[in-house]
Amino acid sequence: MRIAVLGLGAVGRGLLQMLAAKPELGFVLTAVADSTSARIDPDGLDPVAILDEKCGTGRCAPSGLSAADVIASGAYDVLVELTPTNAMTGEPALTHIRSALESGRHVVTSNKGPIATDYSGLAALADDARVALRFEATVGGAIPVLHAIRDGLAGNSYSSITGVLNGTCNYILTRMDDEGLTYEQALTEARELGYAEADPTYDVRGIDAAIKLVILANTCWGLGVTLDDVAITGIDGLTVDALRLAATQDCTIRLIGEAVPAENLLRVAPRVLPRNHPLVIKGTLNAIMLSTDMAGEVTLMGKGAGSVETASALIGDLIAIRDRYDGSG
To answer: What are 120-160's pLDDT values in tens digits?
Structure first.
């Protein structure tokens, strides 16, 4: 199966590393693009050579080609869309994904913005073209939660989804709880360790978790909701005193995303939880609890970020497409 990769940031480089390390998977890289260049070869590209050139020159090719040229080339069965994208508008990934679907190509992406912004429209395009749109890597990093919802727990009805959906917030709250750090001290530590961005607003105000909650809700129930439908409270107003008070009741605080259709509830907010609750996890881990009618409560936990971890989710989607469509474009 031929794949084209748009975006060579940490996730894109992680994917190429895994493609090079696992040739037995049978994927052929035929096109790649970064923000300033692109390379296309229908006969196949060497992922290691691409990575070496990217490391040495900052570009994946010396040519004047672009991501748009890759999409228009048609030299791929699956487009893997990993470009830097505005999470609120979904662009430029939204346009890339639409173009690939309209041309009858499968799409795999780790970009949350397009899926949260226009899941219904993109799903309709994929259905019309009889191709796959898969986005496991948009929620929970390496955790196969979307696979569980669509396949592993197929036949179940879901009453709710709750989860710890942002590793940065979870790390900050863990440090505040374990060491008595103030919010500012824990955030500084998270920045120094690379867990938080220089501008952490997107994470600490709950926006990232809310976008993931939208994706989960639309995948599970087809609600057609957007970020505007989520009530959001971040952790930037939390004090260490609040955590100390929770501790007196053998509880702690975590930033929790909740979706309960029967209650019209879509919310991201700090919640007080017993310390033995399945969602009380430490560090940068993510955890998601699915409440089902047959399987009961199923909790999935794992690394919510990381280049190789996210590549795991991307490769899982690629294999699912390969197995279903037998490599046809």
So the answer is: 999 999 999 999 999 999 999 999 999 999 999 999 999 99
Q: Which of 112, 212, 282, 303 is catalytic?
A: 212
Phi, psi of 191 (to 5 degrees): -65, -45
What would the pLDDT profile of 290-323 be if each residue is shown by its tens digit?
999 999 999 999 999 899 999 999 999 999 999 9
The verdict on whether omega for the bond into residue 92 sits within 30 degrees of 0, i.e. cis, is: yes
Best CA proximity match to 296, nearest among 159, 170, 174: 159
Contact of 302 with 285, CB cutoff 8 Å: yes
Amino acid at 158: Y
Is 22 known to be catalytic? no
Q: Quick one: 2-141+308-325 is in which CATH superfamily?
A: NAD(P)-binding Rossmann-like Domain (3.40.50.720)
User: If residue 258 lies in a helix (H) or strand (E), which one and from where to where?
Assistant: strand 251-260
pTM greater than the 0.90 cutoff: yes
